[in-house]
Design a protein that fits this description.
Blueprint (H helix, E strand, L loop, with lengths): L1 H36 L13 E5 L3 H12 L5 E5 L7 H6 L12 E3 L6 H15 L3 E7 L3 H11 L4 E7 L13 H27 L6
Parallel strand pairs: 1-2, 1-4, 2-3, 4-5
Length: about 210
């Protein structure tokens, strides 16, 4: 009986190990593709859009959005995901180069707490403004997941990616930088979860998944 039990365990263990190896291989191939998808440069920095959306997460993003607005790349700017209690004057104080006359063209959103929330907050802004196109400003490592969320929430809006490049994130030769590798692995796993949630929403039409 003992020998039979051991043989049965081996028969079950073999397919499990093979399945695990296959899953890891698929994950690894997808991760390499993801790292190549992370922007290394701005592909379109000149086209005009109706609006600009900055996802909070650093002064470099904010300064980039304000510079684009100053250069009249769009009519209005939305800063999404601002902490409650922080007003526009405080945000502008973070950017010494932001002229005060820009205040009339800037909206701030306090409702978003994550990237999905940013997309939903922007969707409401788009409905209010009637804009048909926007330039999305966020960190380059965050851009793939942001585009996934924004394209899902705003399927009829033309979105131009405008990544910024944090100095501490070394995308080229990322494997040599443990901090960057850990950051990219985390972003990739989040990207997979967002994709799965969206595909499930498309298949089931469950409202809370949207």
């Amino acid at each position: 009986m003992g020998g039979f039990s051991q043989r049965k365990q081996r028969r079950l263990f073999g397919p499990f190990v093979l399945s695990l190896i296959l899953i890891c291989a698929i994950w690894g191939i997808g991760f390499i593709a993801f790292t190549n998808y992370v922007p290394r440069h701005i592909q379109d920095g000149e086209s005009l859009t109706d609006g600009i959306v900055v996802l909070t997460g650093g002064t470099h993003r904010l300064n980039t959005g304000l510079a684009l607005l100053t250069d009249q790349k769009a009519e209005k700017l939305l800063i999404s995901g601002v902490y409650r209690g922080v007003d526009l004057e405080q945000l502008l104080s973070l950017s010494k180069s932001a002229p005060r006359e820009l205040e009339c063209c800037i909206d701030i959103g306090h409702e978003a707490f994550d990237t999905r929330g940013n997309a939903k907050e922007t969707m409401q802004w788009i409905k209010k403004t009637g804009f048909k196109s926007l330039r999305l400003v966020t960190a380059n490592y965050h851009m793939p997941r942001s585009l996934l969320e924004f394209s899902f929430s705003l399927p009829e809006t033309h979105i131009i990616a405008h990544p910024v490049f944090p100095e501490h994130v070394k995308i080229d030769q990322w494997w040599r930088w443990p901090g960057t590798a850990e950051l990219l692995i985390g972003e990739y796993n989040k990207y997979i979860l967002v994709w799965l949630r969206q595909e499930l929403a498309r298949l089931t039409d469950i409202e809370f998944l949207k």
